[in-house]
Design a protein that fits this description.
7 helices; three-stranded mixed β-sheet; globular; single chain; about 30% helix; disordered N terminus; three-stranded parallel β-sheet; alpha/beta
Amino acid sequence: MIRLGMKNLFAVAVVCLLFAFMEETSAAEKIRVGVVSPAPGLSAPWIAKETGGFAKHGLDADVILLTGSPRLAQSLIAGDVHHALVGAAAVMRARMRGAEVVILGAAANVSSQKLVVNPKSGIRHFSISQNGRAYSWHTNTFPVPRELIETHSANMHMILADTEIESQLKSIRPGNMVHLKGLLVEVTSKEGFRWKSSLTRADTGGGACELILVESLYVW
């Protein structure tokens, strides 16, 4: 049995209170959240701060308005903010240039992007078809130069790195935007089968397809 005198008991109580205080203060993680616009659709961080949503989950958040998606994306990369509500295009450009940024979610479940063209552009007469592994396009009038179509459209065959990427790939629907990252590969078999990826965007016809090992996939 351990007996404590009043002085020792008081010391123990002080130590317990000190640890309790340290635990309480360390629980609130300080974060900075950047928001690109005061638009109602992007108001979630301010609502979370004012209603105590951040504090409820142990976060002491500063919500900062930084207009301009490229500027906010740069602040995110630099570490000036920890999280950001920002235009996806700026983040995707940064990602494709090697920045370690990740899209965790979206403020809406549908794309706000719209394609607006002149009624006489000819784009309505542009068709794309897939037959087995073969991809083709056809137009009677060229709304853009032929070379632009050939270098900006592709038939990609996917080898998926894991089941999570497979699930993401199967979730893609018409209208989604997709960013892929991986390796162009060559596949061979013991039986002599050989399938080699194209390594240029300027080729057309047989053998012009890309064969890509998908290591990461972002859909929005």
